[in-house]
């Protein structure tokens, strides 16, 4: 039994409900409620280091009460979760940019029949991390060298530090749009297909949409997209009581060059669905967001919540420039240029964290110590993170040594953010 009882409702409970078992001493000489507040201020990325101090600290730092304290007293750490590749064979990592701290997560449960999972989606809802769908190879399918979409759903519980398998999606899919609806405790997914990173423009496309109810562990089908759409991005726009689920970009049909080489037909538009408390409304279509020849496809997208007080800010990284989406004119306006430009065709990570935009690239080379390491143990070089604050219009940067033992390709790595 948990020595530190968890809250029975939300994380916004009053201080009186944040009670601590008085039979356990957290810090000698201090009341437990004060000691709990002090411990809750320790960055989440450092918890694994101090758990071994004593049994009382280990129990408290592994309890739901800790999460409750951190939410109530606004001690949350804004963390980035990076999946270098298939999470059943390569550990995901939490990264704390504020403290430059890395922490590995346990491997996801392994299925001996499937391998090479990619194009899955990772998303957080509350203190939990969800890994949905993807494309993979299945030894039970024929032909075995062709990828298949996955309907699997997993959840990582940060309190118990363990993975659990959830009810599968109604339709298997990878490369799909996804967004969390925190106030309703739901996750919505749309579109997708079976494409794998090893197979160019091949693979299926789909238009189906479904929502996941976290409390019921249940998937429910919704009205499908107006047309097939894979490789798209999704996000939620909230204004007062109104919620909209946006699906942008992606690809549908493909054409061939000289009747041999498949080439995707990328979309320049978006579609929007009204999200209601008891369901979802119909889809409406938004026209093209750029002119023919302006760009070939949608770049990497991140959303900054409460950007201008009336809704989120939607930003796109296109080569070394950042653009902001103007919903009124349905167009992309240049916001800023990345100070230290990445070489053309190199992979860049782009993510929104705590109201800022992070552009991540690897610096070439390494120190002499790294060059003398055996090849199998050699780590990648330093990670340069350039951070843009869209409200202040300012840039800053930091450099960290990532724990990866191989080159991280941001074009295939999966990333999401979480607050703990």
TrEMBL record:
Domain F-box: 28-65
Pfam name, any one: F-box
Protein name per the record: F-box domain-containing protein
């Amino acid at each position: 039994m948990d020595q530190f009882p968890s809250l029975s409702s939300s994380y916004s409970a009053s201080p009186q409900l944040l009670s601590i078992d008085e039979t356990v001493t957290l810090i000698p000489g201090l009341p437990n409620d004060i000691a709990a507040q002090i411990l809750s201020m320790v960055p989440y990325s450092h918890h694994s280091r101090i758990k071994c101090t004593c049994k009382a600290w280990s129990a408290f730092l592994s309890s739901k009460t800790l999460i409750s304290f951190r939410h109530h007293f606004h001690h949350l750490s804004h963390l980035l979760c990076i999946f270098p590749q298939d999470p059943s064979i390569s550990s995901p990592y939490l990264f704390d940019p504020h403290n430059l701290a890395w922490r590995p997560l346990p491997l996801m449960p392994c299925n001996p029949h499937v391998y090479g999972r990619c194009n899955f989606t990772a998303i957080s809802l509350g203190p939990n991390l969800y890994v949905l769908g993807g494309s993979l190879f299945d030894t039970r399918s024929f032909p075995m060298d062709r990828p298949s979409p996955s309907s699997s759903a997993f959840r990582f519980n940060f309190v118990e530090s363990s993975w659990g398998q959830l009810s599968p999606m109604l339709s298997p899919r990878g490369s799909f749009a996804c967004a969390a609806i925190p106030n309703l405790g739901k996750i919505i997914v749309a579109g997708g297909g079976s494409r794998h990173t090893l197979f160019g423009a091949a693979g299926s496309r789909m238009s189906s949409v479904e929502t996941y109810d976290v409390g019921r562990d249940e998937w429910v089908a919704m009205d499908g997209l107006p047309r097939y759409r894979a490789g798209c991005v999704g996000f939620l726009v909230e204004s007062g009581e109104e919620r909209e689920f946006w699906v942008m970009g992606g690809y549908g049909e493909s054409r061939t060059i000289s009747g041999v080489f498949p080439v995707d037909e990328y979309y320049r538009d978006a579609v929007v669905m009204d999200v209601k408390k008891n369901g979802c409304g119909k889809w409406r279509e938004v026209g093209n967001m750029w002119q023919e020849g302006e760009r070939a496809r949608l770049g990497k997208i991140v959303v900054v919540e409460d950007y201008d007080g009336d809704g989120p800010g939607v930003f796109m990284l296109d080569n070394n420039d950042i653009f902001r989406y103007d919903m009124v004119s349905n167009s992309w306006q240049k916001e800023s240029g990345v100070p230290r430009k990445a070489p053309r065709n190199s992979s860049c990570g782009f993510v929104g964290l705590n109201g800022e935009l992070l552009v991540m690239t690897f610096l070439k080379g390494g120190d002499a110590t790294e060059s003398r390491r055996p090849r199998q143990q050699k780590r990648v070089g330093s990670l340069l993170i350039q951070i843009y604050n869209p409200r202040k219009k300012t840039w800053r940067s930091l450099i960290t040594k990532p724990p990866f033992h191989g080159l991280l390709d941001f074009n295939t790595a999966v990333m999401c953010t979480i607050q703990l």
